[in-house]
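yo, MORN repeat-containing protein 3 is done. seq:
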Amino acid sequence: MPYIKTTKQHVRPKTMLDKTSQKCGLRSTVYMPDGNKYTGEWLKNQKHGIGTQIWKSGSIYNGEWKQGKRDGYGTYSVLLPDAKEYATKYCGQWKNGKKHGYGTYYYNCSEVYEGEWVEDHREGWGMMHYENGDIYEGEWMKDENHGQGSIRYVNGNWYEGTWQDGKKHGNGKFFYCDKGQIYEGLWEDGEAKCGTLSDFGRDEAKAPPEYPIPQV
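structure:
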């Protein structure tokens, strides 16, 4: 029987440098070539677990990571150059690096959204406090009021009903609290199309019309 000589493949053993260069577990601050820095947990050379990243721009994220991306619960803040302090922009759930789940986003001091997110978009149920004082609570889709919802205006009037692409659309009610009247009917692209107007809380209204609406 012929004898075939085999050669053993030489495998270089891992050196201490190889082992220490592998980022796994809790590490001190790691500085990136782009000027960003990260302090926290790693797994297989990826940010994984709890950690804090500070971008060169001054923005900061503190929370959970999964396979190198923000995933889980965390807070994203930005640096205010004039005040030299951080302001929270988003606090809530993340998935695959995007706002996903339940969270609160601060557009500014007076304009805030609290509710559900899907891949960085307001989607699901949420409440929006607008800068002018109006408040919307209801369903969203792709950052627009869409589905069932109500909006209360700063002057006290409010609408409740269906929405489509950010506009009143479908069946809805509009309460004119200052006049003591209510409109019930059909809306299309934000405009009232067909419905009935009747008195509603006329005695408590601030500026009711001179004559009440006749009962049909």
